[in-house]
Amino acid sequence: MKRILLSISLVCAVSACLFATGSKEVSPKENFTAKVVLPSGGPAIALSKLVYEKTQFENSVTEYEVVAGPDVLQARILSGEADIAIVATNFASVVYAKNKSVTLIAPVVWGNLYCITSENISSIAELKGKTVYSFGRGVTPDLTVREILSKNGLNPDKDVTFQYLSSAADIPPAFLSGKAGIAIAAEPSLSAILAKKPDTKILIDIQNEWKEKLGGLSYPQASLIVKTEFLKNHGEYVKAFIEAAKNSVDWVNANNAAAAEYASNITVLPPVPVITKAIPRLNIYFVDAKKAVTAIEKYLSVLAASDPKFIGGNLPDEGFYYQAK
């Protein structure tokens, strides 16, 4: 009887450890390891359910890593260390143009940029002659904003004066201090600003303007990709991961507060209440690659109009897009 009780106690103890970590049981037939790398922010929030619960798949071990800043993320991709990742959609195009080593599975973040103001203006036309504080000079956020201004009849080089700060993180202190009366803010920075200055006016939802002026869901800012070699060798794993990723995105959108809690435990973010408010404006949607081709090509074309190097020279061919077999 003592042996039976001891066995039961050991089983309970092991089970408690598993549930405490949020891990799911891994098949004993482990024969490969998959490395998933996500940047902090919207992409990490999108798959926060998988990362926090350390979701595993049959016959494999999945390792998750959340990184800060684009340099580390890009290094993981270029070195081949990452098997699956979420990256800027145009960066995926650049890598594909080099050696076709990645396949795009789905855009998952459809823009997070907003023009905010504390001034007494209420239309895009009233930005003429104004100074707008922004970030990312000459790269994708800047090019996206400039495209929207152009589509609304403003010349971004002549009608608006851009004052560029070093990063998106510099926008909140500049705006809250009164230094910037008009600014481009990215979520979750926008929600952090609204928490401290509730009377802040959202003058332009860049995503809605994109939909109105260029069509589609919005612009596919960040996408889930897989290393092409990994896809060839582990197609069934990729299918299972895709389904889990879709479920995570759906769960995040349906459970903002819980998702914010999960995300705050896997990366450094603003406080949970701020992230909870930010999630709806992060525009996290999982759209299969084949259904998103038109939106992706339109976005890449806008970037390429500034400089083809932003997309690797030319629009990617159909081999770039994942298609389940």
From TrEMBL:
Residues 74-256 form the SsuA/THI5-like domain. The keyword Kinase does not apply. InterPro entries: SsuA/THI5, UCP027386_ABC_sbc_TM0202. Residues 1-20 form the signal peptide. Keywords: Signal. It comes from the Bacteria. Pfam families: NMT1. The keyword Signal applies. PANTHER family: ABC TRANSPORTER, SUBSTRATE-BINDING LIPOPROTEIN (PTHR30024:SF46), ALIPHATIC SULFONATES-BINDING PROTEIN-RELATED (PTHR30024). This is ABC transporter substrate-binding protein. It comes from Treponema pedis.
